[in-house]
Amino acid sequence: MPAVVDYRQRLASLQGAWDNLALLSHLGDDGTNLSSTREAFESLATRLVTHLGAETHRKAVLDCQARAQVAIDILVRNLFERTADIGHLAADDFLARYAREVPKLRSIIAQGGTDAEGARRTLAMATDSIQKRLSEYVAKYSVYHNVVLVSPDRDVLVQLPGGQAPAQTRDPLIAATLASNAPYVECFRPSDLVPDARRALIYAHRIGSDGTLGVLCLCFRLEDECEGIFHRLNNASGWSVLALLDDRDQVIASTDPYQLPAGARVPTAPGPNGGVIRFAGREYLAVTRSATPYQGYAGPSWRGHVMVPVERAFEPDPEAQRRCDPAVLADIRRNPANFAAGLREIPQQADAIQRDLNRSVWNGSVRLSTGSTANVAFAKALLREISNMGRRTKDVFERSIGELHETIVTSVLQDSEFLASLATELFSRNLYERSNDCRWWALNATLCRALTSRDGADHKAAAAVLRQIHSLYPAYHSIVLFDAARRVVAVSREDQAHLVGAQIDEPWADETLGLLDSQSYCVSPHRPSLFCEQPTLIYSAAVRARDRRVAGGVAVVFDAARQLESMLRECLPHNERGEPLAGALAIFIDRDGEIMSSAGATPDASGTLVEHIRDHLTREGSHAIRIGNEYYALGVKKDPGYREYPGLAARAAVLLPLGTVLERGADLRRPLPQCAATRDHARHDVHEFTTFAAGSAWYALPTSCVLEAVDARALQTITTAGPPWAGVIMHGDEAVPVVDLATLLERPSAEPPSVVILLRLEGRSRAIGLLVEALGDNPEVPRDRLMAISLLEQSAAALLVEQAIQPVNPLDGLVLVLNTKQLAGTLFGTPAAPVASGERAAAHLQRQRVA
Fold first, then answer.
1. How many helices (H) and strands (E) does the chain have?
2. Predicted confidence band at 831 (pLDDT cuts at 50, 70, 90)?
């Protein structure tokens, strides 16, 4: 993991510097002990490297999981359609008639005699006719490279022109199919029906009403199909190898035949999260996924498999790192709830350690200023180096966490685009089948006869055929046969029988009747129809009489509402409980920008989100968008089509939540100005101050009155003490009353107060605490930079401020110096109720502690 190794080396280097500073701190006279700080940073660095490694590993595994799962699921969806194809084609009247007549004709030819020549011509004509019909079928369903009809005696009766099946097959598939009562037989093994393939995927079905006329075999283009799936899923510039494995862990096909040759047996990592495997002398990160059943069909016991060389598995994607705008990343990072709990804690703990370190350095500077030591220069230089080292360490933590957040965000952006691409893939492949179905069924002899006959029996036969087809293809809402006058002749659904005789007044019906050949079809816009109240797509083809005249058409009414939503739901990411990710949304949009279907968000939220993203739907790819106070990753992909099917120019969009944005608060306080003396000022020309922030400004006090700064978490709130008293804090055995300086000065707080500065004011034997928001530094200020000041406003601040420090850069603003006498007078000069209550609270706590 190069990025993790880089940060581990940086942190190790910093740790060495901390060790040196911890040793040097014992030589200084400032009293600073770095042991706890060094140990805290060391512990946090270990946790950071662990989280970096875990998140890097998680991202790589999720990427492998997604591609392995999608590869096998897309294939299984395709094979499900093949199980329906074989059942429908096996019921074709022409095939049954041919299978019945061929053995008779061959017997006559074999006997010789006067009838042999006539039988030979009849057989040739019948074979030519049936080959043309099968060629028509494969011209539409181009996923098959051969269709073979075999007799019960294993004689090949007919196959596609150019087919390589032998005259007689030895494949046991024929006997197994004749003996089976299953709707189809699926086999994947060597077969002489496909002699040039190492292993062939074949779907078989019995021919004839009693199943004794023969066996029909559809030989699937498996390698061609795998190549298409792999091309869409595999990154050409990446190092991963995508493969399909059988139930014995043998490679069926892969993207790299040199690394994973067909037939090789591959070790698989156990569990859904994969692991490291060793193959051919090399280590790989590998993930193997089983298919998700579709419509109850789980396919063969095959699995999708992805493996990446371990030394390349965790390299950052340079393209992905440029996907998200830095301003967007900054917005998302500001809300720690957007990331895992372990990651949220690291920046918070780093901030707490840095605050403790700053306070220790600040206290060390105070002690050096108020004490006497012979080595002040060395001690102060050491403190400055400690402070700088703390900032550098915190910077490394922030940058590593920032880059990790960027990795997470860009990963979500990639996911949104990948899922949108998956949605369009499912969309195109499904509708490819619909365009094929309507054209093939338009060649059905029973349907053609019903359109050219007035016999009611023919119409009933056509309705029976439509019902039988519909039972094999659950993707349809209904199937309709209509004549040249656009009148409904038969329907597949009994509850739509009342529509028989009705005229179809929809544009697609007229377009169908004008189609020129059997390869043409038309598709309706996504609109409601006479046959479906909900918006749908209707694919239709012309049915022709024997004289090639258009006699009508057959239309398949797609069950769009259910099917499209099902596709989109499969594309939504899921949480650990298997539920769709909250806030995620997937939609299909037609070429006119109208919403075809959506899944994920609630209907109300879905409509709102769609309106906000409508302007972004013409831009392919992924990007982050903001909707209200939420950021989303939006992935958009265009319908790519499939094989010769061009698609509908529709688009899919997937919206994944990136997180809630916390609005930026106004910067109420400018940074601390530089106030320290330059080297040309003599020691007696400078005054030492301690600076701190309260409200919207920076303030200073003479260092001589400061005892030390302590963490405000030890502050105990006393409800009986009113403003400006914040409570009481223990300092040794003394209970010290603490005043909230921002409240006393009547200033709005810029951030929650976190530090209490303990003072001993002039004329007071007991200490007093000031609750402030941040510590500054302890500058030595030249006398000529101190200027008298008079605030025009009538406020507590006007009474307590008498001087200001003019910084090195006059544009940086002033640091206001509090008058200690005036502060003491304001707090203790009169027996005001708030003051008295604060004193009493401290005394009460002191008595409790003594008791």
1. 19, 34
2. very low
In the chain, the amino acid numbered 386 is I
Containing 607, the helix (H) or strand (E) segment is helix 603-613
Q: Note whether 691 and 792 are within 8 A (CB).
A: no
Rounded to whole angstroms, how far apart are CA atoms 41 and 21?
13
User: CA angle at residue 731 from 726 to 735, to 5 degrees?
Assistant: 55
Helices 341-370 and 376-441: crossing angle in degrees, nearest 10, is: 170
Is 306 in contact with 64 (CB distance < 8 Å)?
A: yes
- The whole-number average pLDDT for the span 361-365 is 74
User: Cα–Cα distance between 726 and 834 in angstroms, integer?
Assistant: 11
DSSP state of 496: G
Please, what is the end-to-end C-alpha distance for the chain in angstroms? 59
Q: DSSP letter at 475?
A: T
Distance between CA atoms of residues 16 and 4, nearest Å = 18
pLDDT, mean over the chain:
83
Is the pLDDT reported for residue 714 higher than 70? yes
Q: What is the average per-residue pLDDT within 498-509? A: 93
DSSP structure string for 743-763: HHTT---SS---EEEEE--TT
Residue 802, token pair as written in the block:
């008498």
- Picking from 506, 534, 533, 535, the residue whose alpha carbon sits closest to that of residue 522 is 506
Helix (H, G, I), strand (E, B) or coil at 618: coil
CA 792-796-799 angle, to 5 degrees, is: 65
pLDDT at 202: 95
Please report which residue ranges of 26-115 form alpha helices under DSSP H.
35-90, 93-111
Residue with tokens 């590869």: 71
Radius of gyration of the chain (CA): 40
Mean per-residue pLDDT for 835-851? 48
Q: Residue 833: its pLDDT value, please?
A: 36
- Residue 805 pairs in a beta bridge with 786, 815
The b/e string for 223-260 (b: 16+ C-beta within 10 A; e otherwise) is bebbebbbeebbeeeeebbbbbbbeeeebbbbbeeebb
Q: Is the pLDDT of residue 27 over 60?
A: no
High-pLDDT (> 90) share of the chain, %:
32
Cα 430 from Cα 421, distance rounded (Å): 14
Residue 398 has pLDDT above 60, yes or no: yes
**pTM above threshold 0.85:** no
Residue 734: phi and psi, rounded to 5, are -105, 130
The Cα–Cα gap between 186 and 100 comes to 24
Confidence of residue 173 (pLDDT cuts 50, 70, 90): very high
Question: Tokens for 322?
Answer: 């440029």
Q: Mean pLDDT across the stretch 485-508? A: 93
In contact, 307 and 251? CB cutoff 8 Å: no
- pLDDT for the residue numbered 490: 93
Helices (H), 656-810: 741-744, 796-800
The strand order across the sheet containing 630-638 reads: 595-599, 585-589, 651-660, 630-638, 621-627
Residue 342 structure tokens: 């372990």
Q: What is the largest CA-CA distance in the chain?
A: 141
Distance CA 129, CA 591 (A): 41
Which candidate, 816, 705, 829, places its Cα nearest to that of 770? Answer: 705
Q: Position 534: which residue type?
A: Q
DSSP code per residue over 317-361: -TTGGGSS-HHHHHHHHT-GGGS-HHHHHHHHHHHHHHHHHHHHH
Kindly report, residue by residue over 814-826, the tens digit of the pLDDT: 888 888 888 888 8
Q: Per-residue pLDDT tens for 38-50? A: 777 778 788 888 8
178 Cβ contact partners less than 8 Å away, ≥ 6 residues apart = 152, 206, 211, 212, 215
Distance CA 377, CA 115 (A): 123
CA–CA distance, 458 with 839 (Å, rounded to integer): 106
The model's pLDDT over 97-156, given as tens digits with 9 standing for 90+, comes to 999 999 888 888 888 888 888 989 999 999 999 999 999 898 888 899 999 999 999 999
